[in-house]
Structure formats: C-alpha cells, structure tokens
From TrEMBL, chain A:
This is DUF2207 domain-containing protein. Residues 469-489 are annotated as: Disordered. InterPro entries: YciQ-like_C (IPR048389). Keywords: Membrane, Transmembrane, Transmembrane helix. It comes from Microbispora catharanthi. The chain crosses the membrane at residues 157-177, 189-207, 309-332, 338-366. Residues 37-259 form the Predicted membrane protein YciQ-like C-terminal domain.
From TrEMBL, chain B:
SUPFAM superfamilies: LemA-like. It comes from Microbispora catharanthi. Gene3D superfamilies: LemA-like domain. The keyword Zinc does not apply. GO terms for cellular component: membrane. The keyword Transmembrane applies. It is found in: Membrane. It comes from the Bacteria. This is LemA family protein. It is a single-pass membrane protein.
Amino acid sequence: MAFWMAAAAATGLWLLLLLALAVATRNPDVEPGPATRELAGQSPAVVDLITGDWRLCDEAASATLLDLAARGVVAVEEIGPELSLVRLRGEPGGLRPYERLVYDHVRALAVDGVVATGALAEGSRDLRRWWKSFRKKVIVEAREQGLSRPRWSRAHALLLGAAAVVPAVAIGIAVSADDARANHDGGPGAAIVSFALLMALMGRLNGERGTAEGARAAAHWLGVREHLRATGRFAEQPAASVAIWGRHLAYAAALGLAPRSVGSLPVSTPADDNRAWSDYGGMWHVVNVRYPSRLLWGRPPGATILRGLAAGWFAGFFAWILLVVATAFGVWPDGLVLPAALAAGLAVAGLPVVYAIADLGGAATVEGRIVRLRRFRDGGKANDTAKWTYWCAIDEGGSREVRAMGLSEEMWRPLREGDKVRAAAGRRLGWIRRIDVIEGSRLRASYDDTGEHLVDAPENLGEVRVLPDHPARASRAEDGRADDCRRPE
Amino acid sequence: MIPMIVVLAVVAVLVAALVSAYNRLVRARNNVDNAWAQIDVQLKRRYDLIPNLVETVKGYAAHERATLEAVVAARSQAIGARGPEERAAAENMLSGALKSLFAVAEAYPDLKASAVFAELQEELAATENRIAYSRQYYNDAVLTYNNAIQTVPANIVAGMTGFTPREYFRAPGEERGPVQVRF
C-alpha cells in the first residue's frame, strides 16, 4: 500500500509540473490593434494561424486559393449562382510550399485548365495527409518569420521526460511488490507502460505557441479585421468577387469574415456523399447520388431470392395462422384459408424473386466515371465484427441523378473515384456483377499530396475532441483538424 | 358547422399547395432567366473580342478579305439573333467562321507570333469555355424547370398560370444533348 501511495504522489507531482509548464508556456494574450487597412507581409494562411490562437483553421486553404486568385495565378469566374470556375493562369513561379500544394490540387482536378469550385472537394488525395502537410508547411513559415514556436522546448521535454522516470519507476516497484508470482516480473513492464503514457500525455499537450513578435503581428491583423469588418460586406461576397476586392477578400477569408467565399471553395473539405462533381464528358457538372433503401436495391440476386422466399414463407405462415383464427370465429370461410395464405406468401416473395430472376437473366452494361465509392456500416458491434455494404455510383453522362449500386468488397477495394469503368449490373436490383477499369483515375497520384514533412508540429493544447455525431463535424474530426478555431474579439 | 370547417380546411390546404407549387415554378423560371442572362454576358464578351481580333488579323493578312468578312457578318447575325434556337444557330455559324479565321492564321507566322493575337486567341478560348459552362448551366436550369411544369400536380398550376416549356441552348453538332433525369 505504501508503494502505491508513493507512486500516486510521484505521479501527482509530475502532473503538477506538467500543468505548471503548460501554464508558463501558454499563448500570449493578444489585444486587437487599432483598425487599419494596411496589409502586413504575412500570407493569409499564416494570418489564419496567428489570429486563430496558433491553431490553423479550415478556411486557411480556401483563403490561400483566394490569395492565388488575387495575385493572378488563377482566376475565379462566376457562371451562375451555383456554379463558379477556377481557371489556371499559366505556370506560376515563386509559390510558397503550401500555396504550391493548393495550386497542385487545383491543377490535378482541372479539365482544360478549369475546375468548378464545388469540385475542389473531389479527387482521390488522402485528405488527412494533405491537411497535415499543408498545416506543417504553414507552421514552418510562421516559425521562420519568428511568429510561432513549439510549445515544449528541448529543455522542457528533457525535464518532463526525466521527471516522468520517477513516477514510472514508483509504479513499477508498486506493481512488483503486489505481484503474487514468484519472480515479480510485472514491475518493469508496468514502469515502461506508465512512462509511455506520461510521455503520450506530454506530447498531447504539445503544439504551437505564439512568440512576442507573433502576438504583435496578430494584434495588427486583428486591427485589419476590424477595418475589414467595418468597411466591406465580406460575409456575402462570392469567391468570384476576388476580382474586385483582391487580396482583401483573401485576408477577410483568413480572418473568418468571408464564410460564403470560403464555403464555395472546399479545398480542405471532405467530398459530400450525395452531391458529387463529375468531369465525365469533358465538363464539370453536379451529379446527385442516392443510396436507396436496401430492401431490394443493392443486393445480390441469389441472396435476394433466398430472402424473398423466406419472407414469403413467413408471410404465408402468419397469414395462415390469422386465417385459422378467423375461421374459428366464423369470419373467414374454411375452404379459403390455404389459398389465401399461399396468395399472401406468393405476393411477398413474388417481387424480389421476379426481380432477381430478371437480373440473373441479363445484365445491363453501365459505362462511365465512378463519382462515389462508399461503404456504410450495416450491423455488427465491434470493429472486427462490423458488417459493411459497399456502394459504387457511376456517372454515365446522361443524367444528373445517379443511384449508387451495390457490389462485393473484393470488387470495391481496387476501385478509385475517377476511374472510368465498364460494369455489368442488374437494373432492377442494382447489383454489380462485374466491373472493369477502362481508364485509371487521372486524379490518382497526379501530384504529390504528401509534401515534405519538415517539422514536427503536433496539435495544440486544449484541442477539442469532437464526437462524431454530425457528419460534417465527424469528417473534420477524422481529418485531424482542430474544430474550435477561436479569434480574440 | 363541422362540415363547413372541414370544407374550409380542405380549401385552405388546396390554396396553400397551389401557392407553394406556383412559387416553386416562379423560382425555377427565374433560375432559367438568370442562367440565360449569364450566357448573354459571355456571348457579349465574345462579340467584344471579335473586332479586335479582326483588326489584328487584318494587320498581317489583309488580303484574306473573304474570311474576315465572314466573321464580321456572322458576328452581326449573332448579335441580332433572338431566342435560344435562333441564337444557337447564329453562334454555331460564328464559331465556324472563327475556326476558319484561326486556320488562316496558321499560314502567317508573323501573325501567330504576335503577342496581341496570342492573347486574343487565349481570351477567346477562355470565353468559349465559359460559354460552354454557361450553356450547360442554362440547360440544367431548363431541364429542372421543364420537369417542374410537366409533372403532376405542378403542371395543373403551370397550365392555369401560363408557364410554358423553355428551349434548350443546343451545342454545335449537339454532341452533348440536354441531360435527362432518371429516377
């Protein structure tokens, strides 16, 4: 017991040390400076970082694209209220690494040098990796400019690491003393695990923190924010208005004042399950994807026949029981019990069986571009027992409405969004029997979405863990992005 | 009293449904008008570029008079055209004339090397691309509108209030027809 108390005391002391260091290394307070229209030298992405409590917000990537548009690297053109285009303007030079990342993403998507703004969420990049790379590149620049630094210096890390040895050893000794086995070999393992946990906690609290120079710059930019808020109605401006507002719109976006522009440029946003953008046929267009109820749709014909027969049998059986009871009360003629039960069973089993037989008899050929590949959980509790349904939506170019079709996991795995495919599928049950890739996705590996991860930049102190209750927020949490970008008012 | 209330409730529901359907149709029609206006903007941009282009080509290839005149005539005809169908035909003719002009330019290295000509050519290509997107946007709006006025029960409201189907803006050669909704 004494050993455990000593271990608890050592752990408590270490936690106190961690807390003290966390308080000592917190971000500097930033007081907004006087309202000004003077844009300083930082890029919108860096401005987003330093004015967002040294945490990069989602709008940084969109603001970067708006900045590229303001500088003439790309053009944003409005075709209609729901359609704008980003047009490449020749090969630019001298882009910053994170600007190059955004530019390359646009270039990878562009058809004839043009991509619809809504389609910026498309592509087969690994969004989590892309965002991580973007964030690290922005942080590198902020550190180079002396605006930001890592929370834990080497001295801090060394001190916390060395200090963590004490509670870890104390826990190890306590476990050894309690270990009923002859050789008491549980102690070293417990000590190692404890040390690893304490180090993980320390790493979790690491992040970027502002320097005094960074605080001064942030104060200036908050003054710019005040000026922009007072002078322009940026909240309502579309992205194409960058032609009028220039870099001011990009900075307004980075400062959280232009939600409409940011929302219309989903550079760092996961693609919508139901609203896809397709370039099949040579021009970007919206395709609405539906994943119909799986009562009949999206199921293999063999299984559908079995399910139909089982459903028919149960329906007939229950109808028979009901009718027998009804006959006993004299409300149903005795001679019609069996025929009526059979009719009920056949009625229930008929449709799925007929559909399945029709699909087995002949499959339609579907040729087009894969616009959505999704899998949805369909039962099972734990990860290893989870059951999934696999969906593939193919844009054939002739419709703006597409029903995703079901397919097996083996067929689903090697496919990528953007692949041009030819599939044999049943039109009634929507089950793909065979699928061949005619042409690989041009969006796949068309640029390096990894970048060089030059710097270790873990997430900030106080990162909010968002529970995946809302699809959009869940996606943000999955992408490892901070969800609580805050700016001093 | 109760039958009266029931009748009034039914009438109120019917009126609300009619108003809702009418408003939906108006919104769809306004979308079509808006999309058409966007096409208009892009076409006007093209008309504005053509005189500069003709002047530039004239400077290097003055004796290609027939081609130049064909472009000018096609432009005039396109400006005067009314309605999607007539306009689409005139635009197709103008596109053909411009193609001939660029083919002629291939024979004049000095013209091809001219920075002004290259800039105009690029600007025209970008405008053509915008026109193509505007046309797609317009045709999608027309499809939505035409579907709305032809499906039950909105077709009853459309018939009573004078909503008529709109024409598609056909692409040259109609390689890309209007899309259909498949349910």
